[in-house]
Structure formats: structure tokens, C-alpha cells
Amino acid sequence: MSREQGFVQDFVYVRINRAAIGPALVSFLLTALVVAAAWWWLGAPVKLPPSPLLAGEKLPCVSYAPFRGSQDPLVEGTRVSAAQIDEDLAILAKYTRCIRTYSVDDSRDDVLKSARRYGLNVLHGVWVSADPDKTQRQIATSVAYAKDYPDVIAAIVVGNEVLLRGEMTAANLISIIRGIKAQVAVPVTYADVWEFWLRYPDVQSAVDFITIHVLPYWEDFPIPASSAAAHLVAIHNRLASAFPGKDIVIGEFGWPSAGRMREAARPSRSNQALAIIEALAAAKHENIRLNIIEAFDQPWKRALEGAVGGYWGVIDRATNAPKFSFDGGVVSDHPDWPLQALAGVVLAALTFASAFIAERKKRFSTHI
């Protein structure tokens, strides 16, 4: 290449750079501004209703399953360490005075030991199913626990949605409940979706109180978060009218913080907070016993319920603190929005830089 050719090439290179860099930079800055503004809007604080909890008052009860990360109770041989359970209950004791469990297979009596240590009452779950051997082991173990932990176990929940799953007849369930009642000194109940109590009303004759699940998100006609508390009260009153003389306890009420929409039922942190805070207020006003589902997110449930199944927890595993304040205030649906905005801007910068370099090479080769 001659000196004159090199001079021309350098001159063209500079002109191309100056001609292209201005519009590209402006486009990038506008894109970065839009990305940052979008994340700021998505992460903007949402004001919550006033909390019904008095200063120092805790949640009435919270469902607890001890599994974390890849731990899956549906995988044979899954066991959770006593140390992990103790760590969980130490956290939960800050926010609730009671937990509800579902099975004794996975944690032996470690939950009861830690509950005693931290002053927690337990609604002790007995998992009954179509497997008679496993069911009998659950029963025998739970009867023994009721005698060993009378200061911890406030009630025994015999079966969880076994009628909904179709794994047992109502007659068999009634027989099991009565058999356990004859051996323990604590109240005994059964828990199922509210419709199934109306479908199998004879079960009420065997229990000390009726435990119903009211999950507005999962209703056949999904209920929005803003109406969830009113729906809870309406269903409670409907069951109270159907079974006069029986106490009606809400065994599960909650809202997912993430996942797919079901019509007007939209999962988010702000909707989770709204539904639960208003439900706590309604339960206190109507004198309804309420258990919130659930303590921590359970990733294993995603295989059964889709992504939304893993986001019903009220305590964030990453921080070991609530996803929202039970005292009201504000909550963000995207609390990490500054980092997400930064990632979006960086991605835009890389995209624009790649496009600019490719276009510059194309123009340069065309001019030379």
C-alpha cells in the first residue's frame, strides 16, 4: 500500500466513524433510558393496607414443609437434617406462634423438638393415602408423638385432601379418624378443599372441628387478590351454615408471589401481601381461625402445579425475612429492579456495540 492510499484509507475511516457514532450513541442512550424507566416502573413501591396485627403480634399459624432447593419429598429416601429444621423454626418463631405440618415421614420428631425449643404450637399432620402400610406407620408414629409432646401438638390433622385426590373413601377416612381419636387427648380434624366437605358431609361426624382450604387463586372461577379476603369470609360462613355447631378453621389460605395468571388472579408480591393482610384483618374481625400457606417457597411443587406452585412462601429464603412487611407499608414486585435494569442496559450496550462494529466494517469495505 502506498503512502497516498494509506492516507485516503485513514481519512475514510475517520469520516465513517464520525458519521456513524453520533446516531448510534443517541439510539443507545434512548434505549438505555427506556430500559431503566421500564424497570423503575415495574419495581415501584406498592402501598399496602394497614396491618391488623398489633405491635409485637405474630401470625396465627403458618404451614411448614422443611424442603429446600432440590429436596423433594416425592423422591424416595429424601431426608431433611435436624439442623436445617431447627434453623427454619428459629426463623419462623420470629413471625408466628404456630405451624402446620403434613407428614412425619421426612423429619421424624425433629420438627416437634424444635417447636418445643422455640415455643411453637403444632397442628400435626398425619399423611393418609392409598398405601395402607404407609398410612398405618403415619398413624402409629403420630399417636406416639401426641403422647410425647402434649405441650406442643395443639391438634392432629388426619389426612390432607385425600378425598380430593380420590385415594380413600369417606367411610375409610372416618374409620381412621375415629381410631386416632380413641388414642389421643388432643382435638382431631381432617383438612380438604371446602367443596369436598359439602360433597362428603358425613366426615364432620368424626372430627372435633372442620378444617377447610380456601385458595382463591385456584378456584374454578379465579378470584382476584383484591376480593380474596371477602371470598374467604363468604366460604367460611357458607360452611358454618352447612355444619351448625362445628367450628370451621381455615387450614390453608394464601396467594402466590410469582407464576402464571389465572384470569384476574395475578401472582405478585404486592398481591400476595394484599390478600394475606386483608385476610388477617377479616379473620380477626370475624373471629376466624386462620392458617397461612406457606412458610417458605417449595420448588418441588412446580412439577405438580407449574411454576406458580413454587412461590407460595411468605418468607424469602434468600434473606430469611418476609417477602413483605406484615405491618403494612410498601412492597415492590421486583425488589431487585436496579440490578435488573443494569443488566438490561449492559445487554443493550453489547448489542449496539456489536451492531456498530459490524456496520463500520461493512461501510469501510464498501468505500475502499
Give a quick set of tags describing it.
368 residues, alpha/beta, TIM Barrel, eight-stranded parallel sheet, two-stranded antiparallel sheet, 11 helices
Query: Could you say what the CATH topology of the largest domain is called?
Result: TIM Barrel
Detail the poorly predicted runs. 4-14
Contiguous helical run count: 11
| CATH architecture call of the largest domain | Alpha-Beta Barrel
Q: What would you report as the Rg, rounded to the nearest angstrom?
A: 28 Å
Which strands sit side by side, in order, in the main sheet?
2-3-4-5-6-7-8-9
Report on the biggest sheet: 8 strands, parallel
Estimated structural class: alpha/beta
Helix content: 40-55%
Overall strand count: 12
Estimate the mean pLDDT confidence: 88
Into how many domains do the coordinates divide? 2
Shape annotation: elongated
CATH superfamily of the largest domain, please? Glycosidases
Instruction: Write the H/E string, N to C.
Output: HEEHEHEHEHHEHEHEHEHEEEH
| Percent of residues in beta strands | 5-15%
Which class of the largest domain in CATH terms? Alpha Beta
User: What is the straight-line distance between the termini?
Assistant: 12 Å
